[in-house]
Amino acid sequence: MPDDWKAALGFSDRLTTIQAITSAYRHASPSASFAEAQSHATRYEGEAYNKAVSKLEYDSLCQQAIDESEAQYSAAPVIGSPKARSDEEDEFNVNDTIVIGAYKRCIHHFDGLMSTIYRSRSADGTLVALKVTTPHMMGPPHDSKREARLLRQAKNRYVIPLLETFDLVGGRFILVFPYMRYNFEELLRQDILTPSQIKSHLRDLFNGLAHVHQLGIIHRDVKPSNILLATPAGPAYISDFGISWMEGDSGSEPATQKINDVGTTCYRPPEVLFGSKDYNTSLDLWAAGCVVAEAVGVHHRQLFDSGDLGSDLALIRSIFTTLGTPNTGVWPESARLPDWGKFEFYKYPAKPWEEILQGASSQGRDLVSKLICYESSSRLTATQALDHPFLSLQ
């Protein structure tokens, strides 16, 4: 019977679709109330259900509603975040400050794994961030001296500017940057960006990667928190080159003996999880694909899960249950990876991207699918990603 597909489509399935369209609508138009978004979604889903003659057409019509919402509201103004505090206000409320070189009133901002960040003002009153490191206490791949060298060579509109460096007693090495109030991760968590702003920040990311990759630099730690912005509207800058690698740099490992303990948990690509030491810039493109997935997903969740402890095995399982367990046919380069074949994995089927990123725009999902590929040579380059329709300026 022609309506058999409707009988198979249960109430919970329709409700899930309505929730996906509701989330997409609110993502596209942050100022919309939940009731408005749900009413919009219910109407579109009902029209699709009544008009469609098959499950395939029903899914297509619902996806069309999601894509049209993004297109219609892509230019909506950004809304303010009630969580954001002004740095000027903080200065009046903080008494615990220290002196770092010529910077007399430095306020603790953040503790990193190998550094501590302070906020201060330069002689002309400009807010700056001071990254305090101790090079002789760092172990590979961390190297703040190399970070400074690479930042000077990579100077570009899309890379965080290095204003100055200086040494202090005790072997401390200080890098000074313009202070950026926001990072991409917190803006996604607060859900205050419009689709056009998200695309703009992602374009800045890929422009930055295209530039550093052309110089022979692999960033090795691409993630939303390393994309910094002065305002939610941008521009965005790639930051934190503390574990970056550059071809020909005296402080970088040999090209075929790169350290594979790089990247941050769920942004690490499968080749390094299985021991690759001759990886290339495609490592950054997998991580960038994870960033895009997080940005276009209606709930801005990380694409993969490495568990509470950041376990490699947990991450591998998450990748396999999402993309399907690969074999050498799907992933030819796995045959030469040092740690491939040491374990036998359950054969998980691949999920369709429509399920993985339910509620995301078609073009956004397509860009992710072209970056999150097992075979590293199949991933788009940063330059190719900039030509993708999702990042088009039109």
Automatic annotation (TrEMBL):
It holds the Pfam family KIX_2. Its EC number is 2.7.11.22. PANTHER family: CELL DIVISION PROTEIN KINASE, SERINE_THREONINE-PROTEIN KINASE CSK1. It comes from Talaromyces atroroseus. GO terms for molecular function: ATP binding; cyclin binding; cyclin-dependent protein serine/threonine kinase activity. Gene3D superfamilies: Phosphorylase Kinase, domain 1, Transferase(Phosphotransferase) domain 1. It is found in: Nucleus. Residues 103-391 form the Protein kinase domain. Coiled coil: none annotated. The keyword Nucleus applies. It catalyses: L-threonyl-[protein] + ATP = O-phospho-L-threonyl-[protein] + ADP + H(+); L-seryl-[protein] + ATP = O-phospho-L-seryl-[protein] + ADP + H(+). GO terms for cellular component: cyclin-dependent protein kinase holoenzyme complex; cytoplasm; nucleus. This is cyclin-dependent kinase. Keywords: ATP-binding, Nucleotide-binding, Nucleus. One of its GO terms (biological process) is regulation of gene expression. Its main location: nucleus. Belongs to the protein kinase superfamily. CMGC Ser/Thr protein kinase family. CDC2/CDKX subfamily. InterPro entries: CDK, Kinase-like_dom_sf, MED15_KIX, Prot_kinase_dom, Ser/Thr_kinase_AS.
